[in-house]
Write a structure and sequence with these properties.
five-stranded antiparallel β-sheet; elongated; Uridine Diphospho-n-acetylenolpyruvylglucosamine Reductase, domain 3; Rossmann fold; alpha+beta; 39% helix; 13 helices
Length: 417
């Protein structure tokens, strides 16, 4: 569990320790030392003493919080915490967010102009970095947590920054929400219900976006023609969904809308692009292509066990997959594994009309120039080039009397996307 030493996480630890003794759960705690407060060392020591007293293993990790332009201190600190949680070996990471935290988050997201996914705020349970994040206190108010802590005579630390109303969350908590509560006593429950409804709406929008993406996608690109047949709201929804899956960073709504308009209406010889924190999206020959920030892929050896799966080769800006289809590679030739390599120039692949340059095949397939240098080539261990994923396979190892393994390449895709 995440342990800050504050009242919320101390109450949660107390509850989990009791469950641990009753149910035999394996419990450990992690404290992230941000170093942002003069009291940070004291908080870490308090967590150490508490876990020592209660017999809970504790890992305390110091992080360096550096804020770049446009980022908030709170957001960067949160990113560090979730990175540390993601490095845990636990199957479930338990967090102490409660009903008041949820209400504040919903309001802050609304004030930022967020859509359904943002207003859905924090789910009780979700997957993160291969494990579950669980927030069991989301239906419990801060007042109930404080009453429990007094009843159990617990000891916790106070973060002095929590009373600084220069921070928007604290301004809401101390100045605005007390006024709301005087007029609408059950506002927490109402906002919690709104978050659940927005979470449902977000799921429906994602399901629609996935259907639209399947209609518009062609291997590693999104085709402009079927995209243009969708209504503008579905275009925006699908593009935002695609960007999230690519993992290239978030686009400002205004920038995404401008890009959408340019993609649909710019002259054919124009190639509009959308710049993102970890790359860009650009139009080329009727398709939208993703390009990650500069990477230097290395020769990667893969075993035959990946056939039929979709994998993200280490260091490569995309995913490799294999599907059975006529004209694919003979499975026998891949039994010993294979290698992915980048182009060095001069490679040729056996085709019906003879051995054609890889450069020519990439051009004929409409692969953008910016992607050709990082497009993987598939070699056998004996050094033979047998395929350009998503483009062509060698005539010398093509299966002619049934379906074979056809390699595909999805630029910038993330595992599971």
């Amino acid at each position: 569990m995440g342990l800050s030493g504050g009242i919320d996480s101390v109450v949660l630890l107390d509850l989990l320790v009791r469950l641990h003794s009753e149910r035999g759960l394996k419990l450990s705690a992690v404290h992230v030392h941000h170093g942002l407060s003069p009291q940070a060392d004291a908080w870490a020591e308090h967590c150490r003493q508490l876990c020592l007293e209660w017999g809970v293993p504790l890992r305390s990790e110091a992080v360096k919080v550096e804020v770049a332009g446009g980022e908030s201190l709170e957001a960067v600190a949160r990113q560090h915490r979730y990175r540390v949680y993601g490095e845990s070996s636990a199957n479930v990471v338990v967090l102490a967010h409660h009903q008041d935290d949820q209400a504040e988050t919903v309001l802050l997201q609304l004030l930022r102009g967020a859509g359904p996914k943002g207003v859905a705020a924090m789910p009780t349970l979700r997957r993160h970095a291969g494990r579950w994040l669980w927030r069991p206190l989301l239906a419990i108010s801060r007042a109930e947590i404080e009453a429990y802590a007094r009843w159990r005579r617990l000891v916790w630390v106070e973060d002095e920054s929590n009373v600084d109303t220069r921070w928007r969350r604290n301004l809401l908590r101390h100045d605005i929400l007390p006024l709301v509560e005087s007029a609408i006593p059950y506002y927490r429950q109402h906002l919690q219900r709104a978050a659940v409804l927005m979470a449902d709406a977000s799921v429906v929008l994602d399901e629609q976006a996935e259907q639209d993406l399947q209609r518009c996608r062609d291997t590693g690109r999104v085709l402009v023609q079927p995209l243009s047949s969708l209504s503008p709201p579905r275009q925006r929804n699908m593009l935002q969904y695609w960007l999230e899956r690519l993992g290239l960073g978030v686009a400002a709504p205004e920038a995404l809308e401008q890009f959408r308009h340019q993609v649909l209406h710019a002259a054919p010889d124009r190639n509009p692009e959308l710049l993102l924190p970890q790359g860009r999206i650009f139009r080329y020959r009727g398709g939208l292509w993703p390009l990650a920030v500069a990477m230097a892929p290395q020769t990667t050896r893969l075993a035959a066990g990946v056939l039929g799966a979709r994998v993200a080769p280490p260091g490569w800006p995309g995913e490799l997959g294999f599907v059975l289809r006529p004209g694919g590679l003979d499975p026998l030739c891949l039994q010993g594994g294979f290698e992915l390599r980048v182009r060095v120039g001069g490679e040729r692949l056996a085709q019906q009309v003879g051995r054609k340059p890889v450069k020519t095949l990439l051009q004929e397939a409409g692969i953008p120039p910016a992607l050709r240098a990082k497009w993987p080539l598939l070699f056998l261990p004996d050094g033979r080039l047998v395929a350009i994923p998503g483009v062509a396979v060698s005539e010398g190892v093509k299966l002619r009397d049934g379906p074979g393994w056809w390699p595909e390449w999805w630029p910038c895709s993330l595992p599971g996307s």
